[in-house]
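=== RUN LOG ===
request id: a7f3
mode: sequence -> structure
chains: 1
length: 218
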Amino acid sequence: MAAIAAIGFVLDQGLLRFVRGHELRQVLLTLGFAFVLNDLALVIWGGDSFTVPVAPALRGGLHVFGVFYPTYRLFVLATGIIVFASLWLLLSYTRLGALIRAGVDDAEMVEASGINIRRVVPRHLSARFGVSGTWRLMGGAFLTLYPSADAEILVFSLAVVIIGGRGSLVGVAVGSLLVGLLNTLGQVMFPELAYFVIFGPMAVLLAFRPLGLFGRAT
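=== RESULT ===
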């Protein structure tokens, strides 16, 4: 978590600050940086698949409403709920959360009020990278890690943001549930059309709600 947070800070201060305010350039830059990291990982660790070992206390399963479910996945689900609730409380009811939201909506006005938003944004971005690294570590325990796995996860991440709506934490949560359900449904019922089951409804949604379910214009 600390290593990914440090990488995020270096990426923001070393590269992203030069394209701030240009969303397309930011997307292209971060994608290019991801490709570089992917190739570096391939050179250092090779192309063999790898699975993160699960702690002994989280192995096995439990009966939940008559269904036998892996303990570790329940742990990941509970952790996700706790992290979501913590982030929601932080963004909605704290001064730091207000600064972050204001900095996203109108950074110039925040600067004019005497607050150095340039000190807030890098820390916020580093924290986001750190949380992202933690989820990748936890996901590696039940999803095999292999070259190009990051690209597959990125596709689902983009679908989550597009469906839920950019700038909405609730939208991300709802989008995650919808993408997960659609992906599972597609793999079980239409394995040859698994991606279409996700991106077909997403295309229809964008035709009527270009900003997503909970997105808002900035």
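=== NOTES ===
Strands lie at 61-64, 67-70.
The chain is about 70% helix and 5% strand.
=== END ===
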